[in-house]
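Changelog-adjacent note: as of this version, every example in the card shows the full chain rather than a window. The one below runs 111 residues end to end.
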Amino acid sequence: MKTKYIFISIPILLILLFVFNTWRTNNLRKSGIVTQGNVIQVTKISYKDNERSHRKIEYYQVEISFIVDGSEIKGSKEIIPAEYDLKKLIKGDVVDIIYDPENPTEFILGE
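Full-length structure tokens:
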């Protein structure tokens, strides 16, 4: 019986995380501040889905720095190739970002 609740709870938790992330992203797009940041490093991360599957999961860890009120902010984001043009994410490139003025460490990549 407990296993049944676990199998029901996990999808609900994933849905809630997706909804929260979508809300947060939309909120930043509406009320965030747009600035430019520098790509410090891009790291490709890939792994197999599981032992039996040959499906490969890939994403990129992108480290970015930008200036807010004279202070340098550094952070990183995980990017799925389908979400962003990876040709724009080369070390040393300048990219648009949108950050939360209340908490600049919360940011997303611009379009």
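Structural remarks: The chain has two domains: 1-31, 32-109.
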